[in-house]
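As a warm-up, study this chain.
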Amino acid sequence: MTTALAHPSQVNPLQLIGNAQPTSGQYLTFTLQNEIYGLDILRVREILEYSRPTTVPMMPAFVHGVINLRGNVVPVIDLAQRFGRAPTALQARTCIVIIEIEGEDGPLAIGVLVDAVNAVLDMEAEQIEPPPSFGTGLKQEFIRGMARTEAGFIILLDVGRVLSVEDMAGLAQVAGSNV
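Now compare it with the structure written out below.
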């Protein structure tokens, strides 16, 4: 558990973020190419040990493939490549985090390839700062906020923007017709 660092004299930074509005709650933290990221735990469905997905022709480079999850075709996204970086190096702790995003026809499951899952942390609203305008190497709209911890900052991702509904719905439709 992390310690809240309240600054009562400051404006609540969450008011500055707009639609993302990170709040107090639990966040799944994971490592991706030596950086620590967090996802709202309410978006996480499950964590799977890595197994090689089925590749699908004509997909963008960041689509690692598709897996069968209890009879459903689930696209697996290499998050590092989605961020414009080198592909994730497969290691002993590499895993697939299954998350849900809102699609036009209801929830849509997407697998996200990460180096390792770390922990679930409780975050207070006072620990979460607005996304910086520079220096993260990510598009600003991908970042929901920056969580302050004793060990440094955790980049909280806005899953709805990193994995936009339009992009992922199109991938799921193509994947379903090719598998």
